[in-house]
Write a structure and sequence with these properties.
Elements lengths: L30 E6 L14 E6 L2 H14 L2 H15 L5 H7 L4 H13 L14
Helix pairs in contact: 2-4
Amino acid sequence: MSLTSPEAVFHTRRRRTCDRCGEQIPPGKLQTALVPDSSRVDPADSAGHGQRLVYACGDEHMALLVEKARRDWVDEQWWFGLLCQASRAARRASLPELARHARLSGRQLDAALKWNRDREHPLRCLPGGQSC
């Protein structure tokens, strides 16, 4: 009977790069944080709404990433994302009905639609088919 040892397979984790400088983060230096992001409306997981995970190689770069994320937040973009999400669930609803589903005021609805119209490539219809 021949005895063979089981083959050991080692997997190395993919090293992360810093979202600020783009350099690979040395072992033991990885920092992560959830930062605000008005472009993130997650249709499958509302816990991820309005935030994204960033990676940094140190305190200074993390502080810069957090500061930039806060500065880049756009309420109207966030409201438009919520409106798009509501339109997926209520395909036959009118815009005012969608706004109620998304818990948006009339002012927020108007501002979200204006934000979309003013973009370089605006949506002409919401995902549920409603005209914007």
